[in-house]
Amino acid sequence: MPSQLLIKLAAIAIAVILCVALVEGWRADRRDRAQLNAELAATKQLLAAAGARQHDRDTQLVQTLAALAAEKRIIVTPAQIVRNLANEIPLPAPITLQADHASARRTRRRQESPALRPPTMPKPAPRLPQRRSKTKRQRLGQPSSPPKT
User: Fold this and answer.
1) N or C: which end of the chain has fewer CB within 10 A?
2) DSSP string of 71-113?
């Protein structure tokens, strides 16, 4: 009798263990499915945002290309290109010299007063061509080129 009781208890224990394993497997499967659904929803949102950004870029590109095409139709001669160049490329501002009143007065006084003018230098006399000096070999008494045989 004790052996039949032990066999029944073992069978019940095995059945309970199998039921617990099945329930835990089912719960783990539900958790995994819920996690996958959450990841899928986040991925769909990212994909939708990327699609919207791509659509915005495409729209901006179409507008830019249309503006360039319009400018191409408007500006056709080289003179128009040169006139419009300053609008398209940042060119440096022209250099202008502005003299203040004090320096302008000093300059006028110098021009009027001969004593304040800087002296002019006389032109240098033209140089005469110089004779060529002897080479080192000629000074030492050696011929400049080896003798021909």
Assistant:
1) C
2) HHHH--SHHHHHHHHHHHS-PPPPP-----HHHHHHHHHHHH-
